[in-house]
Amino acid sequence: MIVEIHRVRSFELRNLLGFDAPQSVLDAHRDCVDKSTAIWLGVADGVEACAVGVIPVTIFSDRAYLWLISTRICEQHPLRFIRWSKKVMKEVLSLYTGVFGLCGCDNESGRQWLEWLGAEFDPFPINSGHYGFKIPSHDLVGYRING
Question: Strands (DSSP E) along 14-129, which ranges?
Fold first, then answer.
């Protein structure tokens, strides 16, 4: 499998969310994409597999909100996905001193992904069944990938 990472300005949401995704879901995700200062698109053998983006708290903020859209390709190839993610996070954390966000209580794969990236979770759920998390920049400073 050939995995590529592309920094993009935009991408076709339906390729990741599905062509049957409700308009309300597309609109919510489009809002995140439109507000992002940086977006990375993961492609596996020419197929869009995931996208990660960051939205700064304010225009001059050194912290950003992290979002992810992933497909089953990422769940089927978790080691490749985490290697890809760590490369992206290294770049994200060169732009921002830390990232934060929300993860659904029932989102096992999302929580595992964030834990791999060094996320620290709030002890109690907030905001309608979501856990807050943060990833400080020091967690990935020394990370290197061979090959």
Answer: 38-44, 47-56, 63-70, 98-104, 120-121
Q: 38-64: per-residue pLDDT in tens? A: 999 999 999 999 999 999 999 888 999
The helix, strand and coil proportions of the chain, stated in percent and rounded to the nearest 5, come to 35, 35, 30
Work out how many domains the chain is built from and give that number: 1
Of 82, 81, 83, 117, nearest in space to 100 by CA: 117
pTM: 0.83
Half-sphere exposure of 57 (CA within 13 A, CB side): 10
Domain assignment present for 31: yes
DSSP, residue by residue, 58-87: STT-SEEEEEEEE-HHHHHSHHHHHHHHHH
The answer to whether position 24 is within a domain reads yes
Domain coverage including residue 110: 3-140
Place of tokens 């590529």: 4
